[in-house]
Amino acid sequence: MAAAFRFGHLLGFCCRARPPPPLPRGLPHHRVLASPSRHVSRIPCCWASISHLADGGDRLVLTKDERSASLGTRSGEGEEEGDYLVDSSSTIAAIVTSLGGGPAAVGIVRLSGPAAVSIAGQVFRPARVRKSDDNGIACWRPTSHFVEYGVALDLQGNVIDEVLAIPMLAPRSYTREDVVELQCHGNDICLHRVLRACLEAGARLAEPGEFTLRAFLNGRLDLSQAENVGKLVSSKSIAAADSALAGIQGGFSSVVQSLRRQCIELLVDIEARLDFDDEMPALDTGHVIRTIDGMWKDVQQALDTASYGRLLQSGLQVTIIGRPNVGKSSLLNAWSKSDRAIVTEIAGTTRDVVEANVSVRGIPVTLLDTAGIRETDDVVERIGVQRSEAAAVGADVIIMTISAVEGWTSDDEKLVQHIQRSTGSATPMILVTNKIDSLVSAPISARPTQLEGNYFKKHVLTCAVTGQGVGELEEAILDVIGIEPIPSGGRKWATNQRQCEQLVRTRDALSRLRQSIDEELPLDFWTVDLREAALALGQISGSDISEEVLSNIFSKFCIGK
Amino acid sequence: MAAAARLPRLTHRLFSVPCFYRGPLPWFPSAKKIQSSSESFFPTRRPLRRRCRVVYSSIAPDRKIHGVDVDASYDVIVVGGGHAGCEAALASARLGAKTLLLTLNLDRIAWQPCNPAVGGPAKSQLVHEVDALGGEIGKMADRCYLQKRVLNLSKGPAVRALRAQTDKREYAMEMKKIVESTPNLFIREAMVTEVLVGKNDNVEGVCTFFGMNFYAPSVVLTTGTFMSGKIWVGRTSMPAGRAGESASHGLTENLQQLGFETDRLKTGTPARVDYRSVDFSGLEPQHGDDEVGWFSFDPEYHIEREQMCCYLTRTTKSTHQLIKDNLHETPTYGGWVDAKGPRYCPSIEDKIVRFQDKESHQIFLEPEGRNVPELYVQGFSTGLPERLQLGLLRTLPGLENCLMLRPAYAVEYDFLPAHQCFRSLMTKKIEGLFFSGQINGTTGYEEAAAQGILSGINAARHSCGKPLIVLERESSYIGTLIDDLVTKDLREPYRMLTSRSEHRLLLRADNADSRLTPLGREIGLIDDRRWNLYQSKQARIVEEKERLKNARVSGGDFSTEVSLLSGQPVRDSATLESILKKPHIEYKVLDKHGLGNKLLSKMEKECVEIDIKYEGFIIRQQSQLQQIVKQQHRPLPEDLDYYSLTTLSLESREKLSKVRPQTIGQASRVGGVSPADITALLIILETNRRRESAKKKQEFLRAAAADTSKDAVPIAAAAANGADS
User: Fold this and answer.
1) Is the ipTM of this complex over 0.90?
2) Alpha helices, DSSP H, located in B234-301
3) Angle at B572 between CA B569 and CA B575, to 5 degrees
4) Minimal Cα–Cα distance from A66 to chain B, Å?
5) Which residue of A has its CA nearest to B568?
6) Which of A107, A306, A386, A487 has the fewest CB neighbours in a 10 Å radius?
7) Contact: B518, A66; criterion CB under 8 Å
8) What pLDDT shows up at residue A478?
9) Min Cα–Cα distance to chain A from B180, Å
10) Domain holding B240: CATH number?
11) Where is the tRNA uridine 5-carboxymethylaminomethyl modification enzyme C-terminal subdomain domain (chain B) (predicted)?
12) Domain's final residue, options B610, B633, B656
């Protein structure tokens, strides 16, 4: 097993006085001299220290544990021809086509990194299994730059979209890593589901601009100067969607902060006992378990209601209600830029619930246009009205439309009261005054009545014919769901995927922690997962923990020899 | 008691045939042997730099044989004979460098001025690691212990910690013997007042108070609390490094003139009381462990001794009242000392002021030796004047009639913030000058020893032009310690704590040898005997793990006991490995049923048990580590002008200019540097690298073009390369 020993780290060049000769590139150990024969190990699978040489005078030595030699596989490293990768061990994924700009024919999910092919292989099943493969599903071995048609599957094996897979193997790709692009249908929901499948298969969500950053660092992109960091980071990314969401996360971040604080407090309690064994009272294990269970529930609740599945799978449901002929259908058409709903001058045209999908800053929104609500003898229309009410009950946001020409009427008053009764006043409502183009006199916004203010969170003026006010309406929706707590279903945060990823990491860590406690593993093992949870939560809030734990130990406990 | 049975033989070997390094006379062949073992890594010895060659050429070989330093030229000079200095000097000399150890008082070599103990959480890991590299502190603690206990026994293998109470006189004497008998090592009393610096900002030697010059291309300063040291008892102070020992003056000013930044720290030590005047009858005794643990991986030093007992007492209401009434008499609250003391080692007045609601604090009474009546009053350091100290001691149960032998005192001293050092512990300003121990702002014998061995190794390597060794943060507690020192802005004496290590599950006491002994071997501090012991130990562990993987059990008493202990059913024909993974099942259970391997030592069984039982956790931490390591280890150019990098925040430009980190990972740990700054830094590095490589490529092409007739192939290759990108 002589080859198992490597003596790289003692070797190299002299100190500054003698500049090193040019080193062969691509070798993990810059220069390997013959190892003395008596160092030959008699232990199987045993290998020693790894060198990590710097350009300065000092050697950097990373010593490995010989006993766990088999654990660190280092194959595939150091082969980048001297090109550095940013965290090259991870494979990143993101939707790289624009989001929220209305439905497009095609949208792309891109994977980049060493595991891009294997992750894509789990998500993508080619329609035609090549004959050479015994079982084509188990291992996808694509030819670079060869388009394949097939379906995308989630981890349970359900088909979620039809896709074209385009493998671009290193170095012939945008990032110079293995890249697989999955061309999906342009619908945001399809894209999100495919992305989610990729993340579940082991990819990490790309940071804003990370593809470009990798491309740059791997020498693929030629940027003349490095001053453009800011631009670089925000140029090519899903950052737009993120930043739109950033404004509505007040409630979420306070939950994260509180979870993180609890993690750190537990860490402090435990670590103080590890460093100052004989000076501390025993740990209150019951308290620790209760805290962890509480945290787990909070995280789970955040995940349940904070919309990972909800927002990405079903998105928000917005129901447009109002008296007949106030322009609900026109509003839906203008908003979804389609002729989805039939529009006539006749009151009561819409008899059933009409659905259209739009995207508000990356959040898929299902718009429901409803039959105008009124007392009616028409059997069909009456059913329509009932359905309208049902749609309103199931909505996340209700848009109450009135006509600027008629203004606020007593029928509107009755309708709102009726709806409020049936929804339990829990669903936030937005008042839309439509047809403002027909209004010649003073703008209606100048006189919002006391009454309207009681029912509605926001008031928006629109003109469905010209599309005026739709943007404000979208703002209003984001505003309303961000601020409004919904007691019945918990909070509805618009967490983005990166945050959800960290929440999942937190939850998993807490689950493992609970398991460690149940199996009565020693105290130190609890800290491993607590740290992991605190780190994941810290990623959301952007803070580091090590110093914090230490200073808390000293401020909280009386310790000292 | 196998160890006891072996005792006579081991004792005999220990004393009549001193261990390998000290070697039987004549010294020279022994020294040569070591030399050759380290040389073997460099089959062709590189020419020494000019300065070194001068040094070597001035030494006549015959002068060395008699061990008399008639010459004033050495390879390495170590200033200070404490725990850092001893490790540094021993490592350097054992690597074959002619080493001079200068100390203020030869009778105080490796003295333990504060608590008579070695080890404890995190510190014990340092001791094991120093031992794994071939250092001395672990063997000394194993030889001179009065009592040993394993702390945190049930809290996990990574935080399990051995602590030894030591006989401080015996410790100092034993270490002195080792130092005196090590080949290549010369000792001498002197007060160093000046570092001699050459034209290229390289160290050339030191100058002493009495005007002697000693020359060497590497100098290690381990000044402890002695540089401008000042001790305080109440309001009264005197210049001293320790009670009864004069401080060292002049060196601070000299270092400041050389451009080093200095600052001041404070620490303290409690009173000592007479053992015979204490009534132990009402006190809770603390006995040592029945089964003694060892710091050293070398079984030759595992010699059991009779253990002594420690006692536990507590502060009382009258203790607290007395302190509250006299707060104005303490330096901190009276306001006449403002140097920062350590948070984890607060004086009793600090504890009482900061934790008002706590009615009582634990106080430990620890013996200082087998033949001295002194008791160390652990947890009771104070800045109160001496006239109040006895009264204060007598408020403690059991000490009502005690006699005080030495008063508690505080000491203030100069240190050099360690961001002025590389992680090799060589200073950035002066080539060949190394700092180790309390001069870098640490506290504790173990922290000192850990730095000492590394600086000794590097000083020796530097003196003969070999590349220096750096231990990465995640490789060891030593690496973590040094990385913290050179990166973080320390405001109090630094003590190693387990919570400072991010991946401590990988840095355990039981695997310190498999992490560091191969390195120690390559450096040249692990001799053949030790290396063979190490290799056969590892082989036994591997074999045993393999055996447990394949050995199966079915039914019987064993299965019954396992399911009883673990609360889990035992499958038929389960492997022993899977059984060991179950909760509460230790290797002992296998032993009990005759399923263990009798050839393994206790330590080896522990290794096997940990590797198997916690495999999942260990693998997970390893993969977490691997994810970050590659990026973290990217080197930063030493000459990077951070002020010119306008994409970094102003704060991080200032901090980075001050600390001058060596790697990206280090940069990210500097306070005030944000992740965005690190991204910007990465991008700048990459831009620079590409600019360089483009330049090189052009030059290469030009050179190749000028030489077309000879070498057509590289041009074609280069051209193809160029077209590619």
Assistant:
1) no
2) 251-257
3) 90
4) 5
5) A519
6) A487
7) yes
8) 72
9) 30
10) 3.50.50.60
11) 612-683
12) B633
